[in-house]
Amino acid sequence: MKKRIIAAAVMAAVVSGISGIASYGQSKSFKLGQWTEIESSILKELNRSYVDSLPIDRIMRTGINAMLENLDPYTIYIPEEENEDLQMMLSKTYGGIGAVIFKEKDGNVIINEPYYGSPAWKNGLRCGDEILSIDGTPTRGLETKESSDRMKGKPGTTVNFKVMKAIGGDTVDVAIVRERIHIPDVEYVGMLDDTTGYIKQTGFTDNVADAVKNGYHELAKQGMKRLVLDLRGNGGGLMNEAIRIVSLFVPKGSLVVSAKGSTPESVREYRTTTEPVDTVMPLIVLVDSGSASSSEIVSGAIQDLDRGTIMGKRTFGKGLVQTVRPVAYNGQLKVTTAKYYTPSGRCVQAIDYSHRNEDGSVGHIPDSLTHEFRTAKGRIVRDGGGITPDVELDAPSYSRIVYSLVLNGIIDRYAIRYAKQHESIPALEDFHFTDEDFEDFVRFAEGQEFDYRSGAETLFDQMKEELEEDGLEESMKEEVAALEKAIKMDKEDFIRLKKDEIIPFIEEEIAVRYYFQEAGIQVRLRYDTQLKQALESPMVEI
Length: 542
Description:
It contains 17 helices and 21 strands. It has 542 residues and is α+β, with helices and mostly antiparallel strands. The chain is globular. It has helices at residues 2-19, 28-49, 56-69, 83-91, 119-122, 144-151, 208-221, 239-247, 294-304, 400-407, 410-421, 435-446, 455-469, 477-487, 491-497, 499-526, 529-536; strands at residues 76-78, 93-96, 99-103, 109-114, 130-134, 137-138, 158-164, 171-177, 179-182, 186-191, 196-201, 226-230, 255-261, 268-271, 283-287, 309-312, 320-327, 331-341, 372-374, 380-382, 391-392. The protein has 4 domains: 2-71, no CATH class; 93-182, PDZ domain (Pdz3 Domain, Roll); 186-326 and 336-395, 2-enoyl-CoA Hydratase, Chain A, domain 1 (Alpha-Beta Complex); 400-454 and 489-533, no CATH class. The chain starts with a helix and ends in a 6-residue tail after the last helix. The longest helix is centred in the C-terminal third of the chain and has 28 residues, at 499-526. The strands form 5 sheets. Strands 3, 4, 5, 6, 7 and 8 form a 6-stranded antiparallel β-sheet that branches.
């Protein structure tokens, strides 16, 4: 406890000093020097006289994190040992075998999903195969991250596995040469019908604009007459890739976004510099509360330039530009350097990003707190945080038990078990989870530990706690008992009740194990009611 208090006190002093930099008319440099000196003197005194050995690394990292969190949620410090994680975030590339793994606490590593074309796939690893050892070290005693770290490494190096095969149970030695693994941001390109093309984009790392461009040309060859660009759940990434994607659909020289920071070099306009592939094809951009940052640059520019129709739900509201700067000892500082604005002048950043919905997205903002802006053709759009779609679509909703089955890995575990028991499944278009299959899932889930209460039951449990606090539990004993009997359900009965909600998730996870990520998207599209609503909705006349 003493150590935590001391660390907090040290960094609170630093934070309060930095936040008060401009006080009393003193210069930023003077105040920074003053508080740096104070911090240094406190640490030196602690190091000299504190009763226990001083955990310098821990208290300083805690203090730095607390200092940066006091600024905004996106300014972070990355020490040298985490630089590979930064590169993974920026480029979605790493050196390894190309597989998602699954590990129970006291179990072996299980291959959950090999990527198509990866070294794991080329060496015959499939879902359900158990990794007994990595370079001679048994996996049973390793944590998941330690197992993953041992599988990663410099491309061209070899990692040796002892593997128990899912089908047949044979134990084999497998030597795999690591490669540079890239997780693509464009997960799926395909035709939804005879004239509607569809591109699912999940990020904005290097060269994703080229992948979108290639997807466009591929779909055009198949007779595409309108395009759906799906940015739902896309948390963003590199701003220059967002600009390049907009440049595919608007005239060369069009303003896409502007940035404004505290220094002259941070104030810039970004325009398209290449010729577009198409400026007239009807374009639908799908967004939701998970669409952030570069997704908002794309959707905001397409909306402001009247190039397409934005459909879905209001976007996240992250209008801050981050720049990665080197700091001492090979660390990196990802620092917010500017806010960005759409072509009409709207700031995408939420008015108050400290008060958001549970998922982090923008809460309700009354019109009285926002301002009107005009698109290229005079349509009214508003600021206040995020991009408000031209066409609002109903968001999918799921029961509490569905979230619980997914987040607790129950469906994941079942898909692995299924893959161990079925060497193959029908072609994707013919694969459907049958009633018999679902009963097998019910039996499996019934034996798993997870919170299967309904939303009503969780509220009931909260009510009981409130009644106990208020001393009313005894006087309302009979009423409470009757209500509890009415709303409580057995686990298997509740799972059966939500069968129609659960089956799409099971089908998707099983399809991925046999036909890889694209198959998962194809299954998801079968049940995508929001996409179907978008295709039936009239587009904005522009």
